[in-house]
Amino acid sequence: MNWTIFHQHVYPIRHKLYRFALRITGSPHEAEDVVQEVMERVWKSPEEQAAAVQNWEAWCMTLTRNRSIDKSRGQTQRRALPIDHLSAHSAAEPTPAQETESRDMAARVRRLMQELPEKQRLVMHLRDIEELSYEEIGETLDISLDQVRVNLHRARKTIREKLLKTETTTPLYP
Amino acid sequence: MKNVSDIQELLDRYWEGETTLEEERRLKAFFSAEPVPEQYRHEAALFRALLAEQTVQLPAGRDLHIAPRPAYRLGWWAAAASVALLLSAGLWWINRQPADAGAPIVRTAPQHAPALPHPAVEAPETPSIAQAVPEPEPRKRHVNRAPVKRKKNAESVTSAPGVDTYEDPEKALEEIKAVLALVSNKINKGKKEIGKGLQEVEAVDILFKKKKDISG
Asked: Is 0.90 exceeded by the ipTM?
């Protein structure tokens, strides 16, 4: 792996890799480890392998997904982890009032997203948070475009229904 | 700023999964701005949460440690060189086995335990060819010319493998060294060919691994 390529294409996407790992593992600590391991793996990749890579981001995301799934395999408590950990390192600096309100709403949305089936959750994450195209999502998750569309549609529909249901029981704006 | 009917149309398409990335960015921008119409409270919550998620970062204190790549290629060469050295030493040791301490250097090998045949010291099977093409000095001498411990049956001696053919032990040693150098050279050539083959195998292995990574 060439140092220049690494700094141009791989290092800048570390936050994106971290968010993706966090979405899968649900643990900031494990997500950090995953990013570290992926960076090491990419850096130590042989020259021939590096030369064959067409899309660095897609490749790194795929490695992150595989490593995250490996790490969370057998971890049955993942869904029960505090969802607030997902925003523990947000770079946004809202006012205290906004912070309280948005944290409450955001935590609710995150919880709903985290409850989605894995494929739906990852497709929605890659589309609505990382803003990837359908093709890039399909490449990263190794699924067809039709599967991307179907999973995204189902994920959004579920989120909408649950948001409406949650709102009736616990108002978003008290 | 879009009007409410435009937003509603975009939202309907968003829930169906039919919006483009640009349209989805417009929705996020609309719902992150204040104030948002009351009927869109839950949509606002969703898009603001999505925007907040985009700002999540790897903890600032977490440094990524990238270790230098291991020099595993050097390790391969070192291993190959070690094997070649051991092979050479083994061949040399096997060839010197019959010449035990105190035993005469020039002698015939026992028939029940012949030494390993060696291309350079082995007696020719057809004496006529050996006579027709004399060996250059300092090469072996024909066994029939050996002055001591000559076998009565010359034919059986010439066909026996591992027969010592030197009067001068130093010459024999020189010959062994030359043979070992030849063997070492051949091993090195073979090692290079193996190295080329290994590189090709590595390339194929990388392709398989990459395909495996992509397929998850």
From this structure: no
